[in-house]
Structures are given as structure tokens and as C-alpha cells.
Design a protein that fits this description.
The complex is a heterodimer of chains A (224) and B (438).
Chain A: E1 2-6, H1 10-22, E2 26-30, H2 33-40, E3 47-51, H3 59-68, E4 75-79, H4 84-92, E5 97-100, H5 105-119, E6 126-129, E7 132-135, E8 140-143, E9 146-148, H6 152-163, H7 171-178, H8 189-201, E10 206-209, E11 213-216, H9 219-223
Parallel strand pairs in A: 1-2, 1-3, 3-4, 4-5
Antiparallel strand pairs in A: 6-7, 7-8, 8-9, 10-11
Helix pairs in contact in A: 6-8
Chain B: H1 4-59, H2 61-66, E1 75-80, E2 85-88, E3 102-108, E4 111-120, E5 123-130, H3 131-180, H4 199-246, H5 250-279, E6 289-292, H6 293-310, E7 314-319, E8 324-327, H7 329-346, E9 352-360, E10 363-370, H8 401-411, E11 415-420, E12 427-432
Parallel strand pairs in B: 7-9
Antiparallel strand pairs in B: 1-2, 1-5, 3-4, 4-5, 6-8, 9-10, 10-12, 11-12
Helix pairs in contact in B: 1-3, 4-5, 6-7, 7-8
The chains are: A alpha/beta (224), B alpha+beta (438).
């Protein structure tokens, strides 16, 4: 998933970028509301992690503004303000969830996944297509009941494809899932990872739509 | 314990008693005088009436002598010029001739007598009366006059007791109101319906309550702010620990551990800054003593030299010697230290920090200027607010340094201002101390 991290504290920002990046997310990190607003215009993010106490434009104002513009990106608020009124204000401004500092990486990741699941209309963390299933929480992938070991990037790619079965995702889109800003993009990284996925899951699992991109195959196709 | 009521009652009853006694004595003396005058004039009249009766008395001496009534208070005597008693209404009493004409006191038959002598031709007429009769009469008169006073004194005492109790009732209700309060209720006590004697106490109490409330709410705000601010470095620590756990290589691990150490240093710095700030709270009493600010600045500059060296920043000093101010050593050290620390941290490597201390017109002035990025004009007031950080600054500070400096300055009745450094570049922080009272 590609995440926008809005956090003014350098230490927290660095750690989150590193930690979330390690679990296969592409993380773009900005330190103030103005830059966050600009970044969101790209409309490439699966989720925004938003700190409320920002210099200049504060988090709640930013959230109300983007919701006012019709931007529906899922938003997870992280903040040191823990009063009930603050939470209510955050949720009313259009946040999907609310996490109070101090938190750790696992809790943040669980919340990120819960928010995206809810957004895709799923309450179960499991996405299944025929014999192939992917658990967004435990990050485990099984094929015909057997566990398949995937790297963080391979998992992210598969997750992106399985989140909208049947839809074609362009190479460019998939690159954005894998890389944040400033990260050097390997020109054929997507191809390399798709190749590895096919090797591990079976060549038919992921289809190449010439000139358009990739998609996961129909469940029947996967089962055969 | 001293009781206002008992005190008032004691004074009141003592006053009444003394007044009663004085009134009694005065009444007695006055009535004695009046009774004396009255009886004296009676004696005189008796004597004068005898003057005309004397020739007849001489003739009927025998019969009159027997008809003398012993119970009569008065006695009359008739003497001739040779000193022979011709007649006495009470022959048993040997009065003699105690004085010349007019009034005299005499003793006879074991009694004190009041005597009036009237000389009429070759006869002397004496009228006398026992002093005891006179005293009895004056005592009786005094008693009659004292009777209402005897009723009045106890009545006044009882009235006074009730009056005192009644007047102290508002005090009781104030006590009850104060007792009903819990520790958090700082609303002022109603002072409009209390007697003016208690009013100043209530007003003083209300003003104390007001100050207490301000102090408590400022501390509460401080604790809440502190807890809130501690959450950020704690989050960083939690995340940095997670990163160490996930590190795949020794290099990654050691980078992560270095980051964690930095996070711990930052948290401890925040905690110690919070403590310094708490010690410099306006409510904490300050004890200002004359000290040499120049020596103190030199000491702080020496202490911060390693940090300056690490960041390759030259610290220059231009200090006048000595500069005496009324100050508190610990507070001033914290303030100067924070100013220098800020200047060094926010200035790029290779820059310079200048500390200037001079005295103008008896006012000591300390300026710390740097060659850093400077503070935008709109932020120059806000930088002294707690936890305010200049947006865009790439140094992770506690947001407390300058508020500590400001609080210390305020405790010293000094003013602090942020401005541009020398030549309009960088930052200059200036503390101006008040004229030291010699």
C-alpha cells in the first residue's frame, strides 16, 4: 500500500517511514499540513496517517479541507490528544480511526489494515480467490492450504492486485505501491516481483494484460 | 484559646461592676452629704426655736426634766454663761460644751454626736443628735438610690451576653461555609452580608483563594501539557524499539540503536527541562542575592564549550567586569545555559555565537546572538510560549528552553526580547535587568 504520513516530529517520522517501509508499504512523509494537501492532489494514496498537532495548518483543519474537496482517502489520526472531545472531533471531521500516542508499530499496522479492510467493505482480514488466500493482518498467503513465503514487496504487490480482483493495475500504479518518494525505482522491479510471484503461486495466478498492466486471474483459473 | 465572646463578656461585666461600685460609693457619699445638711438645718431650727422657749423652760424645768424622752434622737440643753447646765432633755448624756457657737462634733456616752450651739444673751442653747442616726439615714437613702442599679447590672450582663452572641453569628456562618467546601472549590466567599469587622478578613481570604486558584490551575495546565508533550518522545522510543526488533543486519541494528539512544537523550532532556521550568514557576518563592553576572556567564560558557566544539561553532564573549545584579544563581545559570544551547543548536556548523554583557545606566544587559537562520518576525513573541516550536526548524527541541528563560527573567523583574542578530542576520536574545537597588 502507498501511505501518506503527515507527522511533524522528525524522530517519529523517520521511524515510521522505516518501520512501515520494511513491511512493504511505500511511505511518503511530509511534516506539515500544507505539503500534505499538495501530496494528496496526486490521489495515489491508499491511506493517510495524520498527526493532529502540526505546525501551521493543524491536522483537523487539513482533514476538513480534503473531505470538503471530496477526497475520500482513508485517514487514520495519530495524536497525543486523548480527551474524548478530541476523538469525537477527529472522527466527525472525517477520520476513519483514531490512535493515541504513545503507540507501537504493530498497533499502527493493525489499525492501518483494519481501516483499509473496512473501506473495501470487508470485515474479515482474509481475501480469498479460489484456492489462493491472503491474510492482511498476519500477512500470510496460502495456496491450496499450503503456506507460501513471500517478501514484503511481493506481498504488497499481491495485496494490491487481490484488493480489486479482475481490475487491471498499470505498471506505474504498482510501482507507486512499492516505492515512496525519493526511493530509487528499479526500472523492472515490478516485472521481477511478478515473476517471482508467478514462480511461487503458479504461472496462471497473475495475468499480463498487454500494454495495460497486470491483474489476478479468475478463481477458476487459479484453481486449475 | 482566646475567645472574642468571653473576652467581650469579661470586659463588659468588669465594666458594669466597676461602674456599679463607683455609682454606689458616689451615691453614698452624696446622700451622706445631703442627709448631713438636712439634719444640720434641723438642729439649727431646734436651737433657734429653743431660744424663744428658754425662759419658759427655766420655769418648768422640773416637769420638763421628767418628760425627757430617751428615744428621741435629738437632745437639747440649756447652759448659763458660767458653764452650768441648766437643763438637758437627756440628763444622762454628758455632752459638755464641745465647741464655740455653730456646729461641732463631740463624743459622749460612748456615741458620736453632732452638736449645734447658739449663744443667746447669757444663755447657751445646744441641740445635738447622734451621728449613727445620720449615717443610718444616709445609708438607707443610698440604698434606695442603688436599688435600680442592682437590677440594671445583671440585666445588662445578660443582654450583653445575648448581644455578643448575636453579633458573632455571621462569623459562625462564615465558618460553616468554609467547612462545607471541598478542596477544589475556589469560588469567593460571599462578603456582602457580613459585618464590617469580618469583611476585611473575608476579602483577604477571597484574594488568597483567587491566587490559589490561579496557581493550582496553572500547575494543572502545566502537568497536562507535560504529560501531552512526553507522549511524543515516548512514541518515538516505542517505534525505535520496534525498528531494532525488525532489523535484518547488524548495520541496521546499530543504526536503530543509535536512533533509540538519541530518542532517550531527547526524552531525558525534556524531563529535566520540565523540572527546571517547574522550579522557576512564579509561585515558587525566589531569593535574590547580589551576584556577578559576568562570572556566571563565563562559567556557563565554559560548560557549554564541548557542544560548541562538536558543532564547530565559535563562542565569543564580550563581557564587562564585574556586572552585579540581584539574582538567583540556579535560575540564571539555567537561563543563560538555555540561551547558549539554543544559539549553538540552531546555528549551522562553522557559525558563531556572541555573548555580550554590559551595564548601561545601572541596567545590566545580556545579549546572546548567533549567525543562525533567525526567527521570523511573526514568531518572535510566540517563541517564549511553552512547547512552541518555530515551524520548519529542523532541530528537535523540547519547546521549553525559551519559556524557561522567560520565567527566570520574570522572577528577576527583567525583560526579554527576541530580535535579529548583528547586521540583521541570525537571532539576538536580550535580557535587560532592572537597576540593582544598592
Amino acid at each position: 500500500m502507498r501511505l501518506l504520513l503527515v507527522e511533524d516530529d522528525a524522530m517519529i517520522g523517520e521511524s515510521l517511514q522505516l518501520g512501515l517501509g520494511k513491511s512493504g508499504h511505500a511511505v511518503d512523509w511530509v511534516q506539515d499540513g500544507k505539503r500534505a494537501g499538495l501530496a494528496l492532489k496526486n490521489d495515489v494514496y491508499d491511506l493517510m496517517v495524520l498527526d493532529l498537532g502540526l505546525p501551521g495548518k493543524d491536522g483537523l483543519t487539513l482533514l476538513r479541507e480534503i473531505r470538503g474537496r471530496g477526497n475520500e482517502v482513508p485517514v487514520l489520526i495519530v495524536t497525543a490528544r486523548d480527551a474524548v472531545d478530541d476523538r469525537v472531533a477527529g472522527l466527525n471531521a472525517g477520520a476513519d480511526d483514531y490512535l493515541v500516542k504513545p503507540y507501537d508499530l504493530k498497533e499502527l499496522q493493525a489499525r492501518i489494515h483494519a481501516v483499509t479492510r473496512r473501506r473495501h467493505g470487508r470485515t474479515q482480514p482474509l481475501i480469498s480467490l479460489g484456492a489462493l488466500s491472503l491474510d492482511t493482518v498476519t500477512r500470510q498467503v496460502t495456496m491450496r492450504g499450503e503456506q507460501v513465503s513471500l517478501s514484503a514487496r511481493e506481498f504488497s504487490l499481491l495485496h494490491a492486485l487481490m484488493a480489486s480482483p479482475g481490475a487491471v493495475r498499470s505498471r506505474r500504479e504498482l510501482e507507486e505501491v512499492l516505492y515512496g518518494w525519493g526511493q530509487e525505482v528499479d526500472s523492472n522491479a515490478v516485472e521481477v516481483h511478478i515473476h517471482k510471484l508467478r514462480h511461487k503461486l503458479g504461472a496462471r495466478t497473475i495475468e499480463n494484460v498487454r500494454g495495460a498492466g497486470y491483474r489476478v486471474a479468475d478463481p477458476d483459473e487459479i484453481d486449475t | 484559646m482566646r475567645s472574642i465572646r468571653n473576652n467581650l463578656l469579661a470586659w463588659l461585666s468588669t465594666g458594669l461592676l466597676v461602674a456599679g461600685l463607683a455609682a454606689g460609693i458616689a451615691t453614698f457619699l452624696k446622700s451622706e452629704e445631703e442627709v448631713g445638711e438636712m439634719f444640720d438645718s434641723q438642729l439649727q431650727q431646734i436651737a433657734y426655736s429653743m431660744k424663744y422657749a428658754a425662759p419658759a423652760m427655766e420655769r418648768q424645768m422640773e416637769t420638763m426634766a421628767t418628760s425627757g424622752d430617751d428615744d428621741t434622737d435629738f437632745m437639747v440643753e440649756l447652759w448659763d454663761a458660767k458653764g452650768k447646765r441648766l437643763y438637758s432633755s437627756r440628763p444622762a448624756v454628758e455632752l459638755g460644751l464641745p465647741g464655740g457657737s455653730g456646729f461641732a462634733d463631740a463624743k459622749a456616752g460612748g456615741k458620736a454626736w453632732r452638736v449645734f450651739m447658739l449663744v443667746s444673751g447669757d444663755r447657751i442653747i445646744q441641740a445635738a443628735q447622734p451621728q449613727a442616726t445620720r449615717e443610718e439615714a444616709s445609708l438607707e437613702m443610698a440604698m434606695r438610690m442603688l436599688l435600680p442599679l442592682a437590677v440594671l447590672v445583671p440585666m445588662l450582663a445578660v443582654l450583653g451576653w445575648f448581644g455578643v452572641r448575636q453579633s458573632l453569628r455571621p462569623l459562625t456562618s462564615v465558618v460553616a461555609e468554609v467547612e462545607r467546601r471541598d478542596a477544589s472549590s475556589m469560588t469567593p466567599l460571599a462578603a456582602d452580608r457580613v459585618p464590617m469587622e469580618i469583611r476585611p478578613l473575608l476579602l483577604a481570604l477571597n484574594s488568597l483563594l483567587g491566587r490559589l486558584e490561579a496557581s493550582i490551575s496553572s500547575q494543572r495546565r502545566f502537568v497536562a501539557d507535560a504529560a501531552h508533550e512526553l507522549r511524543t518522545p515516548l512514541t518515538a522510543l516505542a517505534l525505535q524499539a520496534d525498528i531494532i526488533e525488525q532489523a535484518d543486519s547488524p548495520e541496521e541494528r546499530s543504526t536503530a540503536i543509535a536512533a533509540l539512544r538519541k530518542g532517550i537523550r531527547r526524552s531525558s532532556r525534556l524531563v529535566s527541562q520540565l523540572l527546571t521550568l517547574a522550579r522557576q514557576e512564579p509561585e515558587v518563592p525566589s531569593r535574590l542575592e547580589p551576584l556577578d553576572l559576568a562570572a556566571l556567564v563565563e562559567q556557563v560558557v565554559a560548560g557549554i564549550a564541548p557542544l560548541a566544539e562538536l558543532r564547530r561553532i565559535e563562542v565569543r564573549t564580550r563581557l564587562a567586569h564585574p556586572v552585579l545584579v540581584n539574582g538567583e544563581e540556579n535560575g540564571l545559570q539555567a537561563a543563560v545555559g538555555n540561551l547558549l544551547d539554543n544559539a549553538i543548536r540552531y546555528t549551522d556548523e562553522g557559525g558563531a555565537v556572541t555573548v555580550t554583557l554590559n551595564e548601561e545606566d545601572g541596567q545590566a544587559r545580556l545579549i546572546v546572538s548567533d549567525t543562525g537562520p533567525g526567527i521570523p518576525e511573526r514568531d518572535r513573541e510566540r517563541v517564549f510560549e511553552r512547547f512552541y516550536r518555530v515551524p520548519g526548524a529542523n532541530v528537535t527541541g523540547s519547546g521549553l528552553g525559551l519559556s524557561i528563560v522567560k520565567q527566570v527573567a520574570e522572577r528577576h523583574h527583567a525583560t526579554i526580547a527576541a530580535g535579529a542578530g548583528e547586521g540583521g542576520a541570525g537571532t539576538a536574545m536580550a535580557i535587560t535587568f532592572p537597576r540593582a537597588a544598592s
